[in-house]
Specification:
Layout (H helix, E strand, L loop, with lengths): L6 H8 L7 E2 L3 H9 L3 E3 L7 E3 L1 H8 L11 E2 L2 E2 L15 H21 L10 H5 L1 H11 L14 E4 L6 E4 L3 H13 L2 E7 L6 E7 L3
Antiparallel strand pairs: 1-3, 2-3, 4-5, 6-7, 7-9, 8-9
Helix pairs in contact: 4-6
């Protein structure tokens, strides 16, 4: 089975002239499309590139869902820190690169799957992976998750409410910082008080518009 075009190649294909199929992109992108039989280089100057019938079929087809935002690591697939894990990855430059890569992957997933290509609000994947999505937004923004034996940091947990996660932090200032980060990442956030313990916590839901 032919491997589907990469996200960058798909952007070039989708941006082709709707009438002529003329392509614009870097030499490397165009050459890769030619190699895969999705484009051809016109023999006459200025030697523009155009979609082949196979390229047109891809352009006209419904876009397939891109892979979930993940980064391959030595131990498997990237997972955002939700706080309180027993076997949490060690902080450091390698972890920072993984987190940044996963966040960029999530923004690309938003661009490709939100109907209007918006990257400022959550996409369908985030609505079905609420805890991981909220935790990724927090970790990518530099917030520190709680350790296995400490509540000094954020904790992201599922709730009985549909499309809502709870975010807790023992420090009020840090909790407000988490709220600001999630709002900037496209989440609706409210701050509440636990009736029994009087502890403050956040309820966050992906914004729809």
């Amino acid at each position: 089975m032919t491997r589907p075009p990469t996200a960058a190649q798909r952007r070039v294909i989708d941006a082709a002239d709707p009438d002529t199929g003329r392509l614009r992109g870097t030499e490397a992108q165009l050459a890769a499309l030619v190699k895969r039989g999705l484009a051809f280089r016109h023999p006459r100057p200025p030697h523009d590139h155009f979609l082949t019938p196979a390229g047109h079929r891809i352009r006209e087809a419904e876009p397939t869902a891109p892979p979930e935002p993940s980064v391959s690591t030595a131990d498997g697939v990237f997972a955002a820190r939700i706080g309180g894990e027993e076997d949490a990855p060690q902080p450091g430059p390698a972890r920072l690169r993984e987190v940044r890569g996963a966040w960029q992957g999530l923004l690309e997933l938003r661009r490709m799957t939100n109907p209007d290509g918006a990257t400022d609000r959550p996409c369908g994947w985030e609505r079905t992976h609420l805890v991981q999505a909220a935790a990724l937004a927090l970790e990518a923004a530099g917030h520190t998750p709680a350790g296995a034996d400490s509540e000094d940091g954020y904790l992201v947990r599922a709730t009985p409410q549909p499309e809502a996660v709870a975010v807790r932090d023992s420090d009020g200032a840090r909790l407000r910082g988490c709220a600001a980060t999630l709002e900037e990442a496209g989440w609706q956030v409210g701050e509440y008080t636990e009736p029994r313990t009087r502890a403050r916590y956040l309820l966050a839901s992906p914004r729809r518009a």
